[in-house]
Amino acid sequence: MILQIPEIQQYWRASVDELVADTDVIYHQAAQAGVRKSIEQPKKVNQFNVDGTVNILEAARNHDIKRVVVASSSSVYGKPQYLPYDEDHPTTPVSPYGVSKLATEQYARVYNEVYGLPTVSLRYFTVYGPRMRPNVTSSPPFTMGRMSPSFECILYRRSLVGI
Predict the structure, then answer these.
(1) What confidence score (pLDDT) does residue 135 get?
(2) Phi, psi of 157 (to 5 degrees)
(3) What is the pLDDT of residue 146?
(4) Euclidean distance between CA atoms 107 and 130, whole angstroms
(5) Domains identified in the chain and CATH numbers
(6) Is residue 10 very low, low, confident or very high in pLDDT (cuts 50, 70, 90)?
């Protein structure tokens, strides 16, 4: 049997609902990444990133999850108006990918304000790790198993960051 798109979406929603049933915290890191891919397939990126996030948030709301941590992206900023970026920097994405990640942040905020679901969005910049895209990473944040001084500075800039 071949599932049509609406049937796949219904199956996926049911699977997410089952997976979060006995969960306390959800770290939602899944996405269709890539600015170039989003320009080629904006509808697909929106479906994966925005619809997928709403499905996660709905499942979390239905199961009284304690917190949802959503992966966002520095792509929400678009062209920098000043550097370094901070939380007050305007968000004017220049790609469908950036728009989709900004939408996920806004959905997380709204689910917190309207439904009381504790959420936080983390705006990742260049991700470094085993599944990174080598064509976008200029230098790793970790060297020889220790943090580089610039990464330590970012970590310890504030005395307390609650998630």
Answers:
(1) 61
(2) -65, -35
(3) 41
(4) 29
(5) 5-130 (3.40.50.720)
(6) low
